[in-house]
Design a protein that fits this description.
The strands form eight sheets. A five-stranded antiparallel β-sheet has the order 17-24-23-18-19, covered by helices on one side. The chain has a four-stranded antiparallel β-sheet with strand order 8-7-12-14. By secondary structure, it is α+β, with helices and mostly antiparallel strands. The protein contains five helices and 24 strands. A hairpin with a 5-residue loop joins strand 23 and strand 24.
């Protein structure tokens, strides 16, 4: 995108999707943007955009990192902007173990968290910790102390470390064992969802500070009575809606996949979530894409694309 907000060029991120990009190229080149800005004014930039081809529709849906009001529409899309423009937001690379007295059967709808504001210097050292909000006052101060012992990578712009302020969200899911083990970012991809999501560094608190998170330790896998044993080992797309109580509803899905589509549709009201949440701690309704995959064991695996 040029300094004037016009699209200069575009491409698919995966070679296998080049045919899809040719289909939407005219849509893309017709778009106009408020250009990116740095201290000196407007600048050229690269913008990642998700293009979704929904079932029974020949018009693509465009999902941008921010909306017309500048509000973040999805954390993964928002964070994908920075490396494409030679900016690396601050990161937490390790966090010490922490403790809380929680019962594993707690079914409270309130998201259990401590949100801290961190000031980092150009080398990634913590220079200040401030409590922003907490739903667990009994562990707020100990969590703030633990944050001082975490390891962080600083904000880097064109390779140079810079001072920054960011937000650390530490979640206390009652389904986990306490005290926790140290959290290591390099191992996060192999962790179960609740372990992976319990420590997050957020460069900006606009929009959701956390999307919906499934309450189950084993993640988004479910047994579907009467259907599961007949699942195809295949994948189907669906749109999931999670309300402010964490109740899941399946809104759209591919009807051409037989038992697998039936299994995805049967998830309504069966897979409990913590709802999406904004900075002020209020739950928010959420709608997003997911993949439903049948497994050889007969279970249904859900991969949320948010």
């Amino acid at each position: 995108i040029g300094e004037d907000g016009a699209v200069r060029k575009g491409r698919s991120t995966a070679a296998a999707d080049s045919l899809f990009y040719r289909y939407v190229a005219d849509y893309c080149t017709a778009l106009r943007f408020v250009p990116a800005a740095v201290e000196s004014g407007p600048t050229e930039s690269v913008l990642p955009v998700d293009v979704v081809f929904g079932p029974r529709s020949d018009r693509p849906e465009f999902h941008f990192p921010v909306d017309r009001e500048g509000r973040i529409t999805g954390s993964s899309r928002f964070l994908a902007v920075f490396p494409l423009n030679d900016i690396r937001p601050p990161e937490v690379t390790a966090f010490p173990r922490y403790f809380a007295k929680l019962h594993w059967a707690d079914s409270s709808q309130q998201y259990p968290f401590v949100l801290l504001k961190l000031s980092l210097d150009a080398g990634g050292e913590v220079t200040a910790v401030d409590l922003v909000r907490s739903t667990l006052p009994s562990v707020s101060q100990t969590t703030a102390s633990a944050a001082l012992w975490g390891d962080y990578e600083p904000l880097r712009v064109k390779g140079q470390g810079q001072e920054s302020e960011c937000f650390l969200l530490v979640s206390f899911f009652p389904q986990l064992m306490y005290p926790t083990q140290p959290w290591i970012a390099s191992a996060a991809d192999s962790m179960p969802p609740l372990e992976r999501w319990r420590v997050r560094l957020i460069p900006d608190t606009a929009g959701f500070i956390v999307p919906p998170v499934v309450r189950q330790i084993q993640g988004c896998e479910a047994d579907i009575p009467g259907v599961a044993v007949h699942l195809e080992v295949d994948t189907v797309g669906a749109v999931l809606a999670i309300d402010t109580l964490g109740v899941l509803r399946v809104q759209r899905f591919d009807t051409r996949k037989g038992a697998l589509s039936t299994a995805v549709r049967s998830l309504t009201n069966k897979l409990p979530f913590y709802p999406a949440m904004t900075l002020d701690g209020r739950p928010q309704p959420f709608r997003g894409w997911a993949w439903g995959t049948g497994t050889p064991s007969g279970r249904l695996r859900i991969e949320c694309v948010w």
